Amino acid sequence: MSTPRRWALVLGASSGFGAAAARAYARDGWNIFGVHLDRRPTLPRVEALTAELRASGADVVFFNGNAAADGFRGETIQSIAAHLRTRSEDLGVVIHSLAFGTLCSLIPEGEHPGIQRKQLEMTLDVMANSLVYWVRDLTAENLLRDARVFAMTSEGSQAAWAQYGAVAAAKAALESYVRQLGRELAPHKVTVNAVMAGVTQTPALEKIPGAEHLIGKALAKNPYQRLTRPEDVASALVALSHSGTYWLNSNVIRIDGGESSCA
Known about the structure:
Layout (H helix, E strand, L loop, with lengths): L6 E5 L4 H12 L3 E6 L6 H13 L4 E5 L5 H18 L3 E6 L20 H24 L3 E10 L11 H21 L4 E8 L5 H4 L4 H11 L8 H11 L11 E4 L8
Parallel strand pairs: 1-2, 1-4, 2-3, 4-5, 5-6, 6-7
């Protein structure tokens, strides 16, 4: 009798790092729960992704909604719990890859008034606080045991880039949450780590003002003379999800081909 496939939950599954992770885990023998927020124009892309994942042999269940909304999160977790318990399967990985926030200056510039309270709080809530709420609620449902949690951060958590202040603060908070969650979830045999990719061509990067400068700087620094690809990160995440990595906890792990080590 074959061993049941474990499940990976990908928050932000329809594009960028999330989609690449879903593909890599499906190829490695995992089933996929995906959470995404897509309107009608981009739903064909999601449908193509789910078909691709199923072609890899994975069972796939996607949920379309706002991952930062309490009601949607609660309903989705209840659906996940019912699905797993019916099949006597478990959740082995959670990937937090939500990239939705406000890119603008904190201080007024010219005619721009600077960031507003709702924009700042929304950015922190989606890109940082939501990690805590999802992990907390999954744990309350007894769904996280002997599992791995990964949260996507960026070098911007340690730098000051134009119009990136709110996102930088969210990423710094995310890394702090990772350390705290790693401590609190250790008794459940759950590790929590942040992943800092190198500069990667994703939809999120394209929205950052001055992205061309970041790309040029990364190409000049990276020993491989190319940008990081979502697939580079996804492959590493799969490797980090295997049983031998249980002692790796509460870290910020750089997956960048050595880009960050080069001046």
